[in-house]
Amino acid sequence: MTEKALRLGTRRSRLAMAQSGQVADAVSQVTGRPVELVEITTYGDVSREHLAQIGGTGVFVAALREALLRGEVDFAVHSLKDLPTAQPDDLVLAAIPEREDPRDVVVARDALKFTDLPRGARIGTGAPRRMAQLNAYARAHGLDIETVPIRGNVDTRIGFVRDGELDAVVLAAAGLNRIGRSDEVTDFLSVDTILPAPGQGALAIECRAGNTAPDAELIAALAGLDDPFTRAAVTAERSLLAALEAGCSAPVGALADLPPFSAPLERGDPQADGQNVKEMRLRGVVGTTDGSALVQMSTTGPVPQTHDEATAFGRELAADMLAQGAAGLMGERAH
To answer: What is the three-class DSSP state of 172?
Structure first.
């Protein structure tokens, strides 16, 4: 008799289904059990409001977590950048697999690169973080652009360019890679130009916090999918976000990487051997959405070995940013 299938809770979007399918295959391999996808509609999927208006943080997550706690699914897959920074006591992030490309990308008309867009180019994005940095870069380099708030899935967003409504849209590289559409990218934005959202490119596999034998066994099995470097990096990034008291819709960018191994990663070579890495670099940015004011700072230190060390790493950089006036640049705090 085959073992009962594990139930994986996922959002219904094409991207969520694609990344959940990839996780399902990996979980089947480490557990030896079949995995079935359970589609769940979240508030973020049905609301037509802009993410910044509905709070951003958690709008794609709450329904999945409720299904977990009700026992309707055994575990759930989230885009880590959608997760609120406070982790509920009754749920655990059992695995954070190796991160995909964390960069933002441009999909523009006529295969244009960002810096080749015409004067007055209209660039669509749903993220105040991207708006702040795009506008700041444009100001610093004499570019004339207009950032336009948009919503919708990948098809909808790229459709704005195809239909001529916008000159370009900015999306996450990881999402396009996961749904096999990276060939539509016309420009990769270096993290030196645009810092990604905290946790961008990473997935989180969440399950109940092991009060029963099946939950404890699942947590132990899922640990085999965890990537310690990715976990340390995103923990530091999310700690910075939490210390700035900002939700995921706030104009905050952060990236922890492992120089000198970040350069091969940016070239799309994930095989950079990270085994000899001793130092982690954390960069953070916060700015007004018009790009007129930006606080951008970085710090480097030993690669954190524990959750507490990674949390402290992020908190310390946030304190430095707050001392430089970061709090005043975030507009309305996300609640």
So the answer is: strand
